[in-house]
Amino acid sequence: MKIQELRQMTPKKLREELIKTRRELGSVKFRAKTGQNQNTAQISKLRKKIARILTILKEMELTAKK
Predict the structure, then answer these.
(1) Which of 40, 52, 55, 62 shows a CA-CA span of 20 to 30 A to 9?
(2) What is the pLDDT of residue 51?
């Protein structure tokens, strides 16, 4: 998901996406530890997506306070 797509979402949708992505990250980490997943690069992609979502949520929070 691109940053522009994330910025167009509402805060509620972003929080839902954050929860979904965190669950997916946990699942991917588990599969990597047990040797079921060969694509370990997916872990870093999911971590970056989580960071993007958190950054956008913080930006929205700060602009709402002004």
Answers:
(1) 40
(2) 97
